[in-house]
Design a protein that fits this description.
Layout lengths: L7 E3 L2 E5 L11 E4 L6 E6 L6 E7 L8 E5 L8 E6 L7 E10 L2 E10 L10 E6 L19 H8 L4 E5 L18 H12 L2 H9 L1 E5 L11 H4 L1 H14 L12 E5 L3 E5 L24 H6 L13 H8 L8 H13 L4 E6 L18 H14 L3 E5 L5 E9 L7 E9 L8 H9 L4 H10 L11 E3 L4 E8 L2 E8 L16 E4 L2
Parallel strand pairs: 2-9, 10-11, 11-12, 14-15, 15-16, 16-18
Antiparallel strand pairs: 1-2, 3-4, 4-7, 5-6, 5-8, 8-9, 10-20, 13-14, 17-18, 17-19, 20-21, 21-22
Helix pairs in contact: 1-3, 2-5
Length: 508
């Protein structure tokens, strides 16, 4: 949608469209946290002057039913946000932020859909991706990775909403020569840098966007236990300023949203309450959760795997007191998902929960006791669950197994996970090559371990670890279809040329 039509009259004022580099709203607008009757609307003003917010249902007629005055402050980096209530379910809305400019007003606006009512038999379409580093190469001044084309493709699909899941900035970019952003102002600057990309601004204004953090909003592989409260407070504050989301102290960024009869989304906060990782106890072992026969089979490629995992490492991993979610969030989530009457329960998951063994410390595999407890709970109490995940900089689609290499063969949960992304950072293949110091190792691991069926490998239905990507999702009654797509909107393919999907799941 165009930001606003030149000459549109609102309250007797003539509004001119905002443009980059001029007074107004250089970093665009956004709508988030959409429910059937409410949404949170966001903008950042270029100047410390009053801002007005107008909201209309589409088609727009007459005076807007919602008119709100806001005042930006330097304390929030001139960001203004307001939750708007009393909206109609299943309705498209347009909104406009305006600010004084010479003899008129300059404005920027966008659109969003409210969720259908809980009993509505509605088809819902959305897309999801994450992991976006907008850092520039200090030597060239150009974007180090790309122009965020994945976000542009997501916006072009004209979905009911989209999801920006995790690493929405990189406080500690992998781009050489870029200093880490550890303070609130430095992190604000990272958000503004990313919003300098038109594709991200188009995603945020084109329809509602659910935003969620992972580790790089704070620092790599973050936990409060390891990195401290000050790092957490700075990361949380900057994220909450630049993303229209709801947050509470007891359960952090955990929340859920119902979209009609057939879909409920559950967003898990996997950073605020987790226990410390055990990587140091395990001396950085590359695959401590893999059985020794599997390690031996790959020791020719990685000689260190021939050495058995020390018992203190295995004991630390298995400690049942270690948690990913924390007790209050775990209780709130399991109670809510068990009670959900939606056909499909989609868990928006910061870090993968399927097993693939390589460097598991920061993933659910690094918290195996709680992982198994959660999977057994879902298996016993909840039908039609799907995990949607980012973080791994790859497309990995597989059943979430309770065990992959047990003596009796794989033990499935009946629950699947789709991992997608990244938008703009190193792909997993590149990271593996750099970690092991050998070009082609990422591709070799995918071909020799990710794809083959157990006991030779983990048997992924899709393993494509060298492509910028997103997942497109369509929910229609008892059918949920996920289609992994690349930055051109084409179907993701594995390096062998095989198609990754579409994956269609049918309700039980």
């Amino acid at each position: 949608m165009r930001r606003v039509l030149l000459g549109l009259a609102v309250g007797g004022l003539v509004l001119a469209p905002a443009a980059g580099g001029t007074p107004g709203f250089r970093y665009g607008v956004a709508a988030g946290e959409m429910t059937a009757t409410s949404a949170t609307l966001w903008a950042r003003a270029n100047e410390l002057t009053r801002v007005k917010l107008y909201v209309w249902p589409v088609p727009r007629k007459g005076m807007p039913p919602v008119q709100i005055s806001l005042k930006p402050s330097n304390a929030n980096d001139r960001v203004v946000q307001r939750r708007v209530h009393g909206l109609k379910p299943g309705t498209r809305y347009t909104y406009l932020f305006s600010t004084p400019y010479k003899w008129s007003e300059i404005a920027a606006g966008g659109t969003f859909w409210t969720a259908p009512a809980g009993a509505a038999n509605a088809t819902v379409r959305f897309a999801i991706s994450g992991d976006a580093d907008g850092a520039r190469n200090p030597k060239t001044g150009k974007p180090a990775y790309n122009l965020f084309q994945v976000y542009g493709r997501m916006a072009a699909e004209r979905n009911h909403f989209n999801i920006n899941l995790g690493d929405t900035i990189y406080s500690d970019s992998e781009v050489g020569g870029v200093p880490p952003a550890l303070t609130i102002p430095a992190k604000w600057a990272k958000y503004r840098q990313n919003l300098g990309f038109g594709h991200l601004r188009n995603l945020r204004r084109g329809t509602g966007l659910y935003s969620h953090w992972d580790d790089h909003e704070f620092i790599n592989d973050f936990s409060v236990a390891e990195h401290g409260k000050p790092v957490y407070r700075a990361g949380a504050r900057a994220f909450l300023d630049y993303n229209p989301v709801s947050f509470t102290g007891p359960t952090g960024l955990y929340r859920s949203f119902r979209w009609g009869k057939h879909l409920e989304l559950f967003f898990l906060d996997e950073r605020s309450f987790r226990s410390a990782k055990v990587r140091s106890t395990c001396d950085g072992d590359l695959a401590p959760t893999a059985p020794q026969p599997v390690r031996d089979a790959f020791s020719a490629l990685v000689p260190a795997l021939a050495t058995p995992v020390p018992k203190p490492c295995l004991d630390a991993l298995a400690d049942p007191s270690r948690t990913m979610l924390g007790p209050r969030q775990y209780a709130a989530f399991t109670t809510a998902i068990k009670a959900s009457t939606a056909t499909w329960k989609v868990i928006v998951n910061e870090v993968p929960i399927q097993q693939f063994f390589a460097l598991p410390y920061d993933r659910w595999e690094g918290y195996p006791a709680e992982r198994e407890r959660l999977l057994r709970f879902l298996q016993a109490n909840v039908k039609n669950v799907l995990f949607l995940t980012t973080d791994s900089h790859a497309n990995f689609v597989n059943e979430v197994r309770l065990s992959t290499f047990g003596p009796g063969g794989p033990v499935g949960s009946g629950i699947w996970e789709v991992v997608t992304g990244p938008v703009a950072t190193n792909t997993q293949n590149k990271e593996v090559d750099d970690t092991l110091g050998r070009p082609g190792m990422g591709s070799a691991i995918a071909a020799l371990f990710y794809k083959p069926q157990p006991p030779r490998g983990v048997g992924m239905a899709c393993a494509s670890a060298d492509v910028y990507s997103y997942a497109s999702v369509k929910v229609t009654g008892g059918t949920l279809t996920v289609t992994p797509k690349d930055m051109s909107g084409k179907l993701v393919r594995e390096e062998t040329g095989g198609a990754c999907g579409p994956f269609t799941f049918r309700a039980k």
